[in-house]
């Protein structure tokens, strides 16, 4: 028996054409979900959707271009999912622009915040934060009508949130951590949960560069994502789950308990007076 039986569930994954989004999408499809893959690059998302259709069936996959900076694009993506599949059960807010996007700009003289390209800074805020809001805003009324739904915000490690030379990326992911806590309280008791999911250290994606040490494979996200998308996580909201801490030798709920991380900030610096 499949502990993560997702037959009948419809999942939207933003940033779904590669990296973590592609890995999570494949894992969800393998357990019976119908998948809406969204991305800004039309050619890339079409290629990824075609590959998914070849493996899991054309009736189970929908690929659509969506620029999450556009409220209209987000609203239209959700409406298309409803038109094609009849419902939306899970939203994975995975689309993001990383630190490389800001650092590689000809207008950035370094990744120090006062030397960064303001336009690319704003782009990162718009994709990583406002885009997550637009998508959650679009799906939540439908989930409330169903009495069941999942919003999963993909964020990052606490150290990464606070690391120097890592804004605006750390700033945006801190905002989404706050959004997870706020939205989960506002939706408490409705059947719609909001949680955050992180790899736990650097993963092998296009966003990672100059990483120290071994990289996690994107597939590390799949087991906790399956649990969050399933009925096994009913009523559990406002959590932060670390994928690399998931222990597949445990029962899923026990593995989830082990993988849940409390939001503990760094100790303040010693008083230098």
3D structure, described in words:
This protein is an alpha/beta fold. The protein has one domain (10-259): 3-Layer(aba) Sandwich (Rossmann fold), CATH 3.40.50. It contains 9 helices and 7 strands, in the order βαβαβαβααβααβαβα. The protein has helices spanning 19-30, 42-56, 71-85, 99-103, 118-146, 158-162, 169-186, 222-229, 252-259; strands at 10-14, 34-39, 61-65, 90-93, 149-154, 192-198, 240-242. Strands 3-2-1-4-5-6-7 form a 7-stranded parallel beta sheet, with helices on both faces. β6 (192-198), α8 and β7 (240-242) form a beta-alpha-beta unit. α1 (19-30) packs across α8, α3 (71-85) runs parallel beside α5 (118-146) and α5 runs parallel beside α7 (169-186). It is globular.
Short précis:
By secondary structure, the protein is an alpha/beta fold. Helix content is 42%, strand content 13%.
Level-1 CATH class name:
Alpha Beta
Overall 3D shape = globular
Rg: 18 Å
How confident overall, as mean pLDDT? 92
The poorly predicted ranges are 264-273
Beta-strand residue fraction: 5-15%
């Amino acid at each position: 028996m499949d502990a993560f039986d997702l037959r009948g569930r419809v999942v939207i994954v933003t940033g779904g054409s590669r990296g973590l989004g592609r890995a999570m999408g494949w894992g969800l499809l393998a357990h019976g979900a119908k998948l809406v893959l969204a991305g800004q690059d039309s050619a890339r998302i079409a290629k990824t959707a075609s590959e998914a259709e070849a493996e899991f069936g054309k009736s189970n996959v929908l690929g659509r271009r969506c620029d999450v900076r556009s409220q209209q694009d987000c609203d239209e993506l959700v409406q298309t999912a409803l038109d094609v599949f009849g419902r939306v059960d899970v939203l994975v807010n995975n689309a993001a622009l990383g630190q490389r996007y800001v650092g590689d700009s000809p207008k950035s003289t370094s990744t120090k915040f006062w030397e960064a390209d303001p336009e690319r800074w704003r782009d990162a805020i718009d994709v990583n934060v406002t885009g997550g809001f637009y998508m959650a805003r679009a799906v939540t009324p439908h989930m409330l009508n169903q009495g069941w739904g999942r919003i999963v915000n993909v964020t990052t490690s606490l150290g990464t949130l606070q690391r120097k030379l890592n804004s605006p990326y750390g700033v945006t992911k801190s905002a989404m951590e706050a959004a997870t806590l706020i939205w989960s309280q506002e939706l408490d008791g409705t059947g719609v949960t909001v949680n955050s999911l992180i790899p736990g250290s650097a993963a092998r994606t296009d966003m990672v560069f100059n990483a120290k040490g071994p990289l996690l494979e994107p597939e590390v996200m799949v087991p906790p994502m399956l649990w969050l998308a399933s009925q096994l996580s009913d009523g559990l909201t406002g959590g932060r789950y670390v994928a690399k801490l998931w222990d597949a030798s445990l029962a899923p709920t026990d593995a989830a308990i082990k993988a849940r991380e409390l939001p503990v900030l760094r100790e303040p610096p010693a008083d230098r007076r």
